[in-house]
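Hey, quick one: can you model this chain's 3D structure?
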Amino acid sequence: MAVERVFFGEMPDGREVYKYIITNSNDYSAHILTLGATLQSFFAEDKNGEMQDVLLCFDNVKDHLELSDYQGVVVGPVCNRIGGASFDIGDKHYNLTANEKGITCLHSGGELGNELWKAMITDSDRVEFSYTASDLSHGFPGEKDIKVTYKLDDDNALHIKYEAVATKDTYLNFTNHAYFNLNGFKSGDILSHSLVIDADLITEVDENSIPTGKNIPVEGTAFDFRCSRIIGKDIDDEHIQLQYTGGYDHNFCINNYDGKLREFAQAEGDISGIKMNVYTTLPGVQFYAGNFLKGIKGKDAHPMEKRSGFCLETQFYPDTPNNPSFPSCLFKTGEKYVSETVYRFSL
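Sure thing. Here's the predicted structure for all 347 residues.
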């Protein structure tokens, strides 16, 4: 195991951005930037013995800042969408940044993905990134001390641990917005990937992708991934939920949630044979099939076309602050938020 620190580029104000590369004994490697604590690359072995980079992202600071659709970044303090760009805590009302259609707060305004994080190598297999978000930044109450630790073990499992504490009662819900293509980031679309998600229900959304408050069964629909299903098989089905979102972009309610780390998903690249098993301590996952990618150029100037990557963003449900029936992500002053997600790669 080894961790290497290399210069990546400069911010517009001259501050330096670094990349940390964690490599295990099998030559699998995770590349993480201090900009956004971004998971920029992950190299896994394919069935031909070649190492494939399975992440869509950028290879320079300028493109990351100007073109990003959140590729690989840490998102919070509350990921996903908050309807009406507002919520209440007790008798206090908070207005948030309305950065989607002027009516929705998406990914907390994107702050964490565009800021420089402090980084510290804490062992031969892990790096800890830290950032402090100020009180009322993008409207979210409390100063929030955030820590994200990336660890790569010799079982080819990438562990991402999130920790946070705030100076006021606040909502906390962190994720990583990695776009995966298990055939390699230059290999085209992900429609022939197979996917399993252990979820009997999805969170119903309206035409603006805001939860209605209902969770609906996947049984007999294009959303039933409880057994292996090809992603592209029914992605353009006439189901109204798919019509609202242009394809899969929904929260799946993970079965038997108890706050403990458990496997909930498996994906496989049809060309590479690379498999990815996913684990989390959280109750939900946003399965997004890259419906809104529009050909922006990423690493090696390769265009990220529609549906060329998919996301499995572990989370509390979207718009949880405005839906008291959803598992709560309200944390009291000084109460510690902790969650973990693991992506394990194999053939």
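One thing worth noting: The helical segments are 61-67, 111-114, 240-245.
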